[in-house]
TrEMBL record:
Domain (Radical SAM core): residue spans on this chain: 35-255
Cofactors that this protein relies on: [2Fe-2S] cluster; [4Fe-4S] cluster
Lineage: Bacteria, Bacillati, Candidatus Margulisiibacteriota, Candidatus Termititenacia, Candidatus Termititenacales
Name recorded for this polypeptide: Biotin synthase
Transmembrane segments: none
Amino-acid positions noted as binding [4Fe-4S] cluster in the UniProt annotation, renumbered to this chain: 49, 53, 56
Keyword Cell wall biogenesis/degradation in record: no
UniProt remark on cofactor binding: Binds 1 [4Fe-4S] cluster. The cluster is coordinated with 3 cysteines and an exchangeable S-adenosyl-L-methionine.
Organism: Termititenax aidoneus
Keywords: 4Fe-4S, Iron, Iron-sulfur, Metal-binding, S-adenosyl-L-methionine
GO biological process: sulfur compound biosynthetic process; water-soluble vitamin biosynthetic process
One GO MF term attached to the UniProt entry: metal ion binding
Gene3D superfamilies assigned: Aldolase class I
PROSITE patterns according to UniProt: RADICAL_SAM
Pfam families: Radical_SAM
Length: 336
């Protein structure tokens, strides 16, 4: 599928064409990924952030955001709960925490590996190649770093003090070091055109990422973009579907953001080509304090309850939860 064809699907008002697109994406997902829906347990271990992103509640200029850092014991305990739930992947996520000690996180990684043998995904922002290498050697398997947008001018406007070139450098380093690497985009950014979105989708496919997250913009009320409307669900689902068709076997989550709008659209995401759900295992009281956007789903439920809900959710559309590690299908293909 070329850029012109992608644009046609992004711009069309013909609902039959949209339905055709979503059905095709679902068929590709079934053929290349199967019926299973993988679960990844998220632990948001620090809400500190040195970033000034124009849409995110963790923005360093937000004085009302409660800041916290979980201890190593708290993180390992959360990993134990994930393990006892049958889930084999933990996602350790934080803001761009300037005080994060790379050696400390390496110790956390080693302890989780030793205690529970979980697959470990990190999502802690931009670091040096040396730090990425340290964590890889400690046992980290995967890394998620969203590009957000591939339009360099738009990227600079929304991420003051950050560099698009450095973002690309980080993604290069991660792939070179053998991480199963994930990236992704936000749909609904200001001045984001269909042409920009088409470029984003082609970038995600061309880079052969193992995981790709696509979610709608939900601007936080304490940020510069607070008055913007939320990202369009229909357009987000089209982007998920197009990405599935182009990437074939990348792991695509039905993002938490899709579940945090006027209703829960994660099932729609699963029908549009997604094959991953990410239950939140951040313990209380921290869970409520990691507010990257307002209305975030599943913040009041007891830790671990989210996973049980997702099993029921998946069954309503005739799919099943897959409790395997869910390693990259691209890596498996390359080894054959």
């Amino acid at each position: 599928m070329n850029q012109a064809e992608i644009l046609e699907y992004l711009k069309t008002d013909d609902r039959s064409k949209v339905r055709e697109l979503l059905a095709r994406a679902d068929q590709v997902r079934q053929e290349y990924c199967g019926e299973g829906v993988l679960l990844r347990g998220i632990v948001e271990f620090s809400s500190y952030c040195q970033g000034s992103c124009a849409y995110c509640g963790l923005n360093q200029h937000n004085p009302n955001m409660p800041r916290y850092r979980m201890t190593k014991d708290e993180i390992v305990q959360a990993a134990g709960l994930i393990h006892s739930s049958g889930i084999q992947t933990i996602v350790l996520q934080s803001g761009e925490d300037a005080e994060l000690d790379p050696g400390w996180l390496a110790e956390v990684i080693r302890e989780i590996k030793t205690s529970y043998a979980l697959s470990i995904t990190l999502s802690v922002g931009e670091k040096t190649r040396e730090v990425y290498q340290l964590w890889r050697a400690a046992g980290a398997d995967r890394y998620l770093l969203k590009i957000e947008t591939t339009d360099a001018e738009l990227y600079a406007r929304l991420h003051p003090g950050m560099s698009f070139a450095n973002r690309l450098r980080c993604l290069d380093n991660l792939q070179e070091l053998g991480y199963q690497t994930g990236s992704g985009i936000i749909v609904g950014l200001p001045r984001q055109t269909p042409e920009i979105l088409a470029g984003d989708i082609l970038f995600l496919a061309d880079r052969n990422f193992d995981m790709i997250g696509i979610g709608p913009l939900i601007p936080h009320q304490a940020t510069e973009l607070k008055d913007l409307p939320r990202g369009n669900v229909d357009l987000t689902l089209r982007c998920v579907a197009l990405t599935r068709i182009l990437t074939k076997n990348a792991h695509l989550p039905a993002t938490t953001a899709l579940g945090s709008l006027d209703k829960d659209y994660r099932l729609d995401g699963l029908r549009a080509g997604a094959n991953v759900l990410m239950p939140n295992f951040t313990p209380q009281p921290y869970k409520k304090s990691y507010e990257i956007y307002p209305g975030k789903r599943c913040i009041s439920e007891p830790t671990g309850q989210c996973a049980l809900c997702m099993e029921s959710l998946v069954e309503t559309i005739g799919r099943r939860v897959d409790f395997s590690r869910g390693d990259s299908l691209k890596k498996v293909t390359q080894k054959k």
